[in-house]
């Protein structure tokens, strides 16, 4: 497109793991998730209940308890830290703003899904918490480490969803795919 | 070593950052003499036995924690939120 005397390039938005994922090794697949909008919600002091009410009315889900995810049609709210959760999917309704600090995080995160036979065994090599379904069922969320990276992990119906800073997308894919290769190699060796 | 975070549950030591003696919570009054402030800021015991330290759950919920533990046996007696131990 030409503007005045210069040339403004048409920029194409790319996903953080564009050209890196998906990767399938053995019967386990690491793929990128399009999370829609990501909005950090940090309730103001004493506003937890009011925020949950506003979230219910606008998006059909409540503010999650620590270590939990709340889910509605096309939206989820994942606990990410003390007094902080990410609304994922829809644009946040204006009615949330009086009760919480609301910040757009959409382009700041790479979101990937690890699913298949060895998903838990792969992350057991990288993450210092128990992610087996009995300890970490659907709806569970945790902020923890993946090797040296801070990540937020939650269990979806489709598998384990891992969120890391967008700048770490390549490292995240590298670490997890290395562990996938090790686990698949061990399985192949019997 | 594991610490049981009041928010996250039992977590590996890798997730925590060690700050130091929990005496930091007992800040002298604003009118305390300089020597009291200097002692509070610089002087630390180095006990073999029971201690109370501040830890930060850096790779978890990001809460500051006061941990009572034994440096000889490595037993952890209690972990509480600094928020509930310190009104500041």
Automatic annotation (TrEMBL), chain A:
Spell out the SUPFAM superfamilies in the cross-references. Answer: Folate-binding domain
**What is the name of this protein?**
Sarcosine oxidase subunit gamma
Species this protein is from: Antarctobacter heliothermus
Lineage of the source organism? Answer: Bacteria, Pseudomonadati, Pseudomonadota, Alphaproteobacteria, Rhodobacterales
From TrEMBL, chain B:
* InterPro entries registered for this protein in UniProt: SoxD (IPR006279), SoxD_sf (IPR038561)
Superkingdom, taxonomy of origin: Bacteria
| Gene Ontology MF annotations | sarcosine oxidase activity
* Gene3D superfamilies in the cross-refs: Folate-binding superfamily
Pfam families hit by this protein? SoxD
One GO biological process from the UniProt record? tetrahydrofolate metabolic process
Protein name per its UniProtKB record:
Sarcosine oxidase subunit delta
